[in-house]
Amino acid sequence: MTLVTEKLWKELQKLAPFGFGNYEPVFATREAKIIDARLIGATRKHLKLKVSSEGLRAVLDAVAFNMADMYGQLKSNQFLDLAYSIDMNQWNGNRQLQLKIRDIHALNQK
Q1: pLDDT at site 1
Q2: Taking 90 as the threshold, does the pLDDT of residue 36 lie above it?
């Protein structure tokens, strides 16, 4: 399982720049648990999640750009399979790891 840490993020930055011919690494976590879900952005078309799992070993923020249509399908304590890249969110002088979601598969409630 992938352990998402700042150390891993720094190691991945050594592979940059990412783009055509050098795609950003994408990871997967199965059965990530939703702690919180909300819509963000001026037009509320982006999804912001707080997720946890054994593989993540922490509660992490995750952002899913242009995936607001998933919001109605998600509930707290629901499990998801996620595909994501690891990002460093820098805002208002703060830095925090976040998952940049590429794909979401909602699982049946456990």
Answers
A1: 36
A2: yes
How far is Cα 34 from Cα 58, in angstroms, rounded to an integer? 12
DSSP H stretches of helix in 21-88:
none
Task: Give whole-number Cα distances, 30 to 55, 95, 107, in Å.
Answer: 8, 26, 10
Phi, psi of 8 (to 5 degrees): -65, -45
Q: Which CATH superfamily is domain 6-13+26-106 in?
A: Nucleic acid-binding proteins (2.40.50.140)
Closest CA to 107 of 85, 78, 82, 83: 78
Mean local confidence (pLDDT), 44-67: 90
Using CA atoms of 4, 104, 28, 48 in order, give the dihedral in degrees to the nearest 10: -10
Q: Where are the domains of the chain?
A: 6-13+26-106
0.85 surpassed by pTM: yes
Which run of H or E residues covers position 49?
A: strand 46-52
Residue matched to tokens 């952005």 = 41
